[in-house]
């Protein structure tokens, strides 16, 4: 019997679904047993995960995930009483949805970030790129983009 790439993909999906259901069962039981587990589980799912999602969406880069991660961060910003950031994040998301089609197509191809060095998973957001290159230019050591 020979396995194709499609068979492997199906097996991975089945295993992932089983694993996720077992993980959810573990989380439900543990939240009922331990208040400490409940606190850390809430932190990981509501605070840490959106932050990691946002950071990874700029490092990869993935425009669709980037837009989604900003929506996920809204609750974190409001909950931590960062209303100015939250209000501006809403404006950013609305503006991201109104971009011209040509610009959005470029972002979908991964051109929403820049690289300061070669390698994988080390893209940086544009604001950082501007700060880093402007500061180096002022110091007299100019570092070009890769």
Structural summary, described in words:
This protein is mainly α and 146 residues long. The chain folds into three domains: 33 residues; 75 residues, no CATH class; 35 residues, no CATH class. Helices cover 73% and strands 3% of the residues. It has six helices and two strands, in the order H-H-H-H-H-E-E-H. Strands 1-2 form a two-stranded antiparallel sheet. Helix 2 crosses helix 3. The N and C termini lie far apart (47 Å). The model has no long low-confidence stretch (mean pLDDT 81).
Task: Give the secondary structure arrangement, pairings included.
Layout: H1 5-33, H2 35-59, H3 63-79, H4 83-96, H5 101-108, E1 113-114, E2 124-125, H6 126-139
Antiparallel strand pairs: 1-2
Helix pairs in contact: 1-2, 2-3, 3-4
